Amino acid sequence: MSVAVGSLFTFDNSYARELGALCEPWQAAPAPAPRLLALNEELAAELGVDAEALRAPEGVAVLVGNATPEGASPVAQAYAGHQFGGYVPRLGDGRALLLGEVLDVHGRRRDLHFKGSGRTPFARGGDGKAPVGPMLREYVVGEAMHALGVPTTRALAVVATGEQVVRETMLPGAVLTRVASSHVRVGTFQYAAARQDPALVRRLADHVIARHHPDAAEAENPYLALYESVVDAQASLIARWMLVGFVHGVMNTDNMTISGETIDYGPCAFMDAFDPATVFSSIDHGGRYAYGNQPGIAQWNLARLAETLLPLIHADTDAAVEAATEVLSSFADRYGRYRSDGMRAKLGIPGTDEEDGSLIEDLLALLKAQRVDFTSFFRALSSSLRGDAAPARALFAEPDAFDAWSGRWRARLASRAADPRETAEAMDRVNPVYVPRNHLVDEALAAATAGDMEPFHRLLDVLARPFEVRPGLESYALPAPPSFGTYRTFCGT
Questions:
Q1: Element at 424 (helix H, strand E)
Q2: Max Cα–Cα distance, the chain, nearest Å
Q3: What b/e readout covers 429-451, taking b as 16+ CB neighbours within 10 angstroms?
Q4: Closest CA to 424 of 355, 334, 347
Q5: Please, what is the angle between helix 222-244 and helix 294-313, to 10°?
Q6: Active site amino acids
Q7: Which pLDDT does position 4 carry in this prediction?
């Protein structure tokens, strides 16, 4: 049913209006007994929405899909995608809906999007539902990424549906309301291109330029400029993932946004002991989406985007390929600069020096060799500049190797006469104390699935201020104990 809840949202529906061939009008499945589990009041304020109105029964009905607000035009979006390297021509929102678009208090257009809201024409045999645990995972990891400064989609709310979802066992169901700059993906372009309709690809590209990369409209070749903007945004995003030890786990082309925001927190996790081969996804048997492979996979995905844009870039195919290849080839340098700048900030290194590369890579090799916790090390390192090397040194089974590296690092800092305490403070502003430790996330989600939301809300509060040491939260800064074993994550379907 459609309800007049103008006090909640004022909708526009530019995607559905301009790109009807890339979506299907649809309605969410009814939830028998909706109950609000988590509401992002900060995000609600950013959207200009009264949080108390969202908590009311009418608001919860909107957040679970039982009521369609006036002005909304729910659609299931179509997209294709390469999943673990294999092309699937028709994926789409099998259990999700784009409710509509709103302008936030800063005038930015934001999507409101359901996940777990029931079967759609793209469901491919699935039930269209989602368990509570995976929806809360998306909420907590997205908020952690936001607090860490990583571009990301965010959760506005998670609402329990009051029904059971059949997986390996019966689990309580839930609907996530996700907020994003948009949900246009590389896979959206792949789907449009596969329809053999150049005008549709052009309309999609024009929609994206206007929404995400408006400067491209003024370029000599707007579509090549669009591609360059996306390449740069993704180079920056992947570097940020690497700098915080984040492993996405399912970098299919349908999970790469054109906006440069992280999307889909299914089999994701944060690395404890540093190892580029780290894989958490239960279905990534070959390690395609391992931590260290993420930059290369991003470039591979961007090559797939280029293929869809070639007819727009130039009428002559050879000329289009040459131009797109030049931009794609710049990804490695762009990523390298973003990563190097980020690593220098983590190490407190001022300016640039030709020796910085070896200093950084030798450190990472040392962390890998001694299986040192990634997050703990960088946070502990600043104590060395305050006269106490013990916290960092204690992380190494063979600390002499760290001592040798530390001597080089301190000499590099001294070469620029950097003030040690100011450097330490700067390092602490970029090296988090708290990240979503896998064992803590699992504990919080297990408790929530059993009906106890307190551990989830406590974890969420800790992760909201990741750079600030707070007494009594020491356990949240520790890696998983050995008894936790090998961690495996799942897509949450």
A1: helix 420-428
A2: 68
A3: ebbbbbbbbbbbbbebbebbbee
A4: 347
A5: 170
A6: 254
A7: 44
Please name every residue paired with 170 in a beta bridge, in sequence order, or none if there are none: 166
Residue reference for tokens 């897509």: 491
Cα(459)–Cα(453) distance, integer angstroms: 10
Do 252 and 84 contact (CB within 8 A), yes or no?
yes
Strands 2-3 and 68-69: parallel
Neighbours of 401 (CB within 10 A): 15
- Cα distances (Å, whole numbers) of residue 375 to 139, 236, 243, 274, 466: 21, 20, 9, 9, 11
Measured at the alpha carbon of residue 394, what is the angle toward residues 388 and 399, in degrees to the nearest 5? 100
Q: How confident is the model at residue 491 (pLDDT cuts 50, 70, 90)?
A: low
Q: Is 330 exposed, middle or buried, given 0-12, 13-18 or 19+ CB atoms closer than 10 A?
A: middle
Q: What pLDDT score does 397 carry?
A: 97
Q: What confidence tier does 7 reach under pLDDT thresholds 50, 70, 90?
A: low
Quickly state the pLDDT bin for 2 (edges 50, 70, 90).
very low
Q: Which amino acid is at 435?
A: V
Smallest Cα–Cα separation from 223: which of 300, 314, 298, 307?
314
Answer yes or no: are the C-beta atoms of 292 and 367 closer than 8 Å. no
Q: What's the chain's average pLDDT? A: 95
pLDDT at 56 over 70: yes
Q: What is the pLDDT of residue 168?
A: 84
Token pair, residue 95, equals 């259990």
Query: Quick check: 473 pLDDT over 70?
Result: yes
**Residue in the structure block whose two tokens are 């906006």:** 259
The residue type of 201 is: V
Nearest Cα neighbor of 92 from 27, 207, 16, 188 is 188
Structure token digits, residue 419? 């003030």
- CA-to-CA dists, residue 493 to 81, 125, 181, 267, angstroms: 17, 12, 24, 10
CA–CA gap between residue 305 and residue 201 (Å, rounded):
11
CA distances from 380 to 145, 256, 407, 435 (A): 21, 33, 16, 14
Q: What is the pLDDT of residue 492?
A: 56
Distance from C-alpha of 146 to C-alpha of 299, rounded to nearest angstrom: 24
Tokens describing residue 420: 């040690």
Q: Which helix (H) or strand (E) holds 236?
A: helix 222-244
* Confidence band for 125, pLDDT divided at 50, 70 and 90: confident
Closest of 180, 112, 184 to residue 142, by C-alpha: 180
Pair 113, 99: CB distance under 8 Å:
yes
Amino acid identity at 458: R
Answer for the pair 334, 232: CB distance below 8 angstroms, yes or no.
Answer: yes
Residue 3 has pLDDT above 70, yes or no: no
Q: Are 148 and 466 in contact (CB under 8 A)?
A: yes
Q: Which two tokens stand for residue 30?
A: 């009814």
